[in-house]
Amino acid sequence: MTANNEIELENRIALHAFLSSVFLTLPDEALLDSLLSLEREAGDSAGCNEIAAYAAAQAGRDREEVLLELGRDRARLVRGANNEGMQPPYESLYLGMKASGESIGSLNRFYADAGYALAEDMHDTVEQIGVELAFVQLLMEKELAALRDGDEAAAGQWADVRSHFTSQHLGRWARGYASAMRAHAQTGFYRGVALLIEEAA
Questions:
Q1: Residue 193 vs residues 17, 78, 112: alpha-carbon distances, Å
Q2: Alpha-carbon distance 74 to 189, whole Å?
Q3: Taking a C-beta distance cutoff of 8 angstroms, is the pair 176, 154 a contact?
Q4: Which of 46, 47, 49, 67 has most Cβ atoms within 10 angstroms of its Cβ?
């Protein structure tokens, strides 16, 4: 594995960690601090540029107002609160209710086979986008660790698991959700998150 490939995998791990945290935790002071400290240079990522532009526009605003704004937008986009025309980010809602039981069974098998379990304080289901993104992050971490140990066969196996998981689950619906999220978001932060999902998918 070349150093460039390793860096690319590290970057993808960091992106998935960020995205999963957006869906699994509420906007808080730490998120706001990281937003306000973002560099303002435009880059190749439309999602990063959108988030940076939103962050720049918040300079000087009351912090509590910004957090309330983000919290309200998150409630609409992630919880479906008062958001007509858009489903929250659960796989079965985007693949059709007929697939729900089968889909959850398949997700649980993927998770169990990889030794992945939801934290006890997790108050969401296995099909929520943040959970699926965190699982992909774990698979990439296992792949990277195997490569660093010189075990290319194990790394290839983890990459195959990730490919199968993406084709059977996250890759089948994440873009549809992200497109709806971008259309309904009221803040540049969540529009940027939607663009990042589209870039990552």
A1: 12, 12, 28
A2: 10
A3: no
A4: 47
